[in-house]
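Regression report. Comparing outputs from two consecutive submissions.

Submission 1:
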Amino acid sequence: MSGRPWAVVCDFDGTATVEDLADGLSIAFAGAEAWHRAEAEFQAGAIPFEELLRRIFEPIRATPGQLRAFVREHGRFRPGFERLVRTCRERAIPFTLVSGGLDLYIEPALERLPADVREGLELRANHAERTATGLALTFPWKDAPGSCGTCGSCKGAVVKALQARGHRVVAVGDGNADRCAAREADLVFARGRLLDWCRRGGLPCEPFETLDTVADRVAALGTG
């Protein structure tokens, strides 16, 4: 048990990044009123996560240039992110960046990273393509084995898959969509709403603000 290698599953918006690019993008291009209305319905349990994403993203008609400009202005990675990915790569620890957001804005953000950091991670996210009327969303990981059935992209399923391959898993997150990963992971790092939820439910976790905290811990874990 103690000799199993480690893997890391990390959220993107608000965890790998300082700001939540998904929310910012929706507010900027689809309107604050639509975002607040959809978010309130989701938090109240009136709509599932997949419907939330459709409400806040499908009306967006921004051009690729506008999206990239937004990412350039707002896409700041959390201190310690590059170090965390490099630490994992140096120790042959798989690093999966798992997001309930869209590849449409995540991939341009990742392009700004040094090549060795980009090559050191795997991305799993929902997919979006531009149409004449806005964005068309698809959820390629929705029915992955072990999914909860309510997330557009269940992070818990990623944790379970890594564990099935023999890994112990570190989960890193900040929001409601990270709960499935936190429930299944062997070690949890949390901030924001996820930290509050873990503490209310008595789920063991370690708080963080910079990802240097996580990198230090991963370096100490080693590979076995």
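Submission 2:
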Amino acid sequence: MTHTILRIPAAKSQSGYSRSTIYLRIAQGLWTKPVSLGPRAVGWPANEIESLNAARISGKTDAEIRELVLALHIKRKALMTMVGL
């Protein structure tokens, strides 16, 4: 299974959100936190962006999307545990 990480330009393109909106949504709990790629670089797993887009398209409420964000963070931690990080 391939795990692609998208930097901010690709995340903006995939979601249709601006940079400031992505960070606002993170603060609101409606978007996953970025993954650190280095001292000054972050990105988001492509599968998380796809899941968030699908939730918006299907008409999920903000409360349901917050639950999805929590579930995605839990899956991310489980993946990190599996690879030994």
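Expected: both submissions complete independently.
Actual: both completed, but the second showed a warning that disappeared on reload.
Relevant detail on submission 2: The first strand starts at residue 5 and ends at 6.
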